Amino acid sequence: MAKKQEQKQKKEKREQKKTAPNAKKIQEQKMQEHEEDILHWADHIAKEVKARVDADPKLKKLVEKQGFIVYDEKTPSGKIHVGSGRGWIIHDAIAKAMRSQGMQATFILSSDDIDPYDKPNKELPSDWDKYLGMPFRNMPSPVPGYEHFGDYYFRQATEKFGELGIEAELESTGEQYEKGIFNKAIKTILDNHQKVQAIYKELYGEEAGGANKIPFNVICEKCGKIATTRATHWDAKKELLAYECKDDVVKWAQGCGHTGKVSPYNGNGKFPWKVEWAAKWPSKTVVCELAGKDHFTHGGSRTCAVKISSEVLDYPPPYPSTRTETGDGYEFFTIGGQKMSTSKGIGVAFADITNYLPPKIVRYLLIKTRPHAVLSFDPCKDDDIIFLFDRYDETERIYFKKEKASNPKEAKMQKRIYELSQVGPIPKKMPAQISFVFASVVIQTGLNEEGALKILRRLGHIPEDLEGHDMHAVMERLHDAKRWVERFASERYKFEVQSIGHAIKLREDGLIGEKERKALLMVAQTVKKKKWDEKALHDEFYHICKKLNVDVKAFFQSAYKVLINKERGPRLASFVLTLGDRAVQLFENVA
Ligand SMILES: [Zn+2]
Q: Where residue 4 falls among pLDDT bands split at 50, 70, 90?
């Protein structure tokens, strides 16, 4: 028995030994998971990109030279819509997160200005159709003062970057071709064009255009179009590309019939889009490039680019892709409930985004939302906008430790969201806060910013000598609230404080009951007696109603009728205090 017992103990010990390191490992894993859990998505991506680079000696060497390149591009075919802004703020946040982790990181946004003008821009008259098929950078600007067509539309969006705190190095893809940045990739792709064709065949079938053509579009030396040329032969030895400029290459532009032979290097042409996407990665040492989920569909452009990058150019595709996985794109961002799309010609332009929301709130919205979550914002939905401003204020209070988060994890997250949402340096102390709805009441009562400031001072919400960043914060909030009331708010949040004449007329016309008039007079006398706070005054309303046997609902309705000629309005006690003498006079005159 004893022996058996001993054996059992030995066995248990062995088991323990076996499980002990496992348990430790699990614990470590849990801690790691926990750490991941509390990381903001931008910090998480930065960390993951660094780990990838560290694990790839070849890539690491390149990054040591170039830094961490976070890359994005945009075709400047027309007004750039707000949906693109999501990617820019995501990439800006990732680059910022990388820098705060001590990595040398740059966000590069390139204008794909060597792409062809491929459909008429609806903003322009039809005589612009003669440029169809030409690269944007070789077309005139529709507005004087810009280098070319592409420059104009690209800058309409990027000139907003400073205001939105987006730090990006802006580039022209056409110029990169001209400078020879893509020359190496051009040679590799052309030398291996059968491999590229095989990838197209595998993904899209034998019939697909890319499965049969040499993947490079020369700019026709005769007519200047890039969409109408077809490469016919690559002479790898002489490094010359034979091409023809024909009518049957695309439906929407006509070729001139020219045939020729040119060097494909230094800006004489470009890759088709999917190949170009892949070629940019090794050429610019890109380690991170997200894109909208429409690019990440099964067999979509990202999948194709990933294969070309990995199998033909031997470069590891940037995060979130790997050599074998496409990864996921970010979700759409819409304003006004519809998917923003350039091709449909609808929706809000990126350049106009600050007409809807102030820059830091735009950033806040996009930073607090994970890239994989759909984001639609409707400025006409009262709750959307009020909630957004209130949440921002809450995050700010948590950052400055004026309010406790629900738990330490949440506190850390909110702090990081606040940091990444700021345009410019983070304030040293908490700026003065006026809640959004209250600001809308004050601005409508005070009629303008000056009047509103007077009210805020009288109520003790701001000190007499408010200045600097506090003054800036209050003025900004009043401005935002004013714009909301004027342009987006529903009737529920709008009002006009009435004149004494209105109160007198209500009395003369007998539109307010006698009991209610007495109650309102008592409110006026009560308010004059001493300084009230909102809660005490609210309770007092009920006392008065009880004392005079007035129906509470009728009392409130009468009060709003006298003050703003509506049946409902802002919270009454707070509103009466905001109105001050004005409310007293109105109530006295209706009595
Ligand atoms: Zn031509």
A: low
* Domain co-membership, 193 together with 144: no
How far, in Å, CA of 559 to CA of 360, rounded?
A: 38
Q: Ligand 1 centre from 229 Cα, in Å?
A: 7
Q: Which two tokens stand for residue 250?
A: 């695309």
User: If you measure from the C-alpha of residue 45 to the centroid of ligand 1, how many angstroms do you get, rounded to a whole number?
Assistant: 45
511 and 471 housed in the same domain = no
One domain, residues 309 and 333: yes
Structure tokens, 352: 């106009």
Q: Which two tokens mark 138?
A: 């070789």
Based on the domain organization, do 246 and 104 belong to the same domain? Answer: no
What CATH number is given to the structural domain containing 536? Answer: 1.10.10.350
516-564 pLDDT per residue, tens: 999 999 999 999 999 999 999 999 999 999 999 999 999 999 999 999 9
Burial 254-270 (b: 16+ CB within 10 A, else e): bbbebeeebebbebbbb
Question: Could you give phi then psi for residue 361, rounded to 5 degrees?
Answer: -75, -35
Q: Does one domain contain both 346 and 308?
A: yes
Of the residues 475, 493, 511, the one at which a domain ends: 493
Instruction: Answer whether residue 103 shows pLDDT above 90.
Output: yes
Among the three residues 493, 525, 558, which one is the final residue of a domain in this structure? Answer: 493
- Asked if residue 204 and residue 333 are part of one domain, the reply reads no
Backbone angles phi, psi at 49, to 5 degrees: -65, -40
CA of 245 to the centre of ligand 1 (A): 5
| Token pair 């494909």 in the structure block, residue | 264
Residue 41 backbone dihedrals phi, psi, to 5 degrees: -60, -35
| Local confidence band at 378 (pLDDT 50, 70, 90 cut-offs) | confident
Structural domain range at position 283: 35-113+132-172+276-380
Q: Is-contact 517 590, C-beta < 8 A? A: yes
Cα separation, 197 vs 207, in Å, equals 11
Lookup: tokens for 278: 């892949």
Cβ atoms of residues 318 and 286 within 8 Å: yes
Of the candidates 341, 351, 285, 368, which has an alpha carbon nearest to the alpha carbon of residue 59? 285
* Total of domains in the chain: 4
Amino acid symbol at 208: A
Q: Is residue 197 part of a domain?
A: yes
Phi, psi of 226, deg, nearest 5: -115, -20
CATH number, residue 305: 3.40.50.620
Ligand 1 centre from 118 Cα, in Å?
15
ipTM above 0.85, yes or no: yes
Task: Give a yes or no: residue 312 inside a domain.
Answer: yes
Could you tell me if residue 392 is inside a domain? no
Q: What is the mean pLDDT of residues 108-133?
A: 96
Instruction: For residue 325, tell me if it sits in a domain.
Output: yes
For 18-22, 206-210, 465-469, which range has the lowest pLDDT when averaged over its residues? 18-22
Task: Say whether both 167 and 225 belong to one domain.
Answer: no
Output the CA 233–ligand 1 centroid distance in Å. Answer: 17
198 and 337 assigned to the same domain: no
What's the gap in Å between 276 CA and the centre of ligand 1?
Answer: 22
Taking the centre of ligand 1 as the mean of its atom positions, its distance from the CA of residue 241, in whole angstroms, is 15
What was the pLDDT predicted at 564? 97
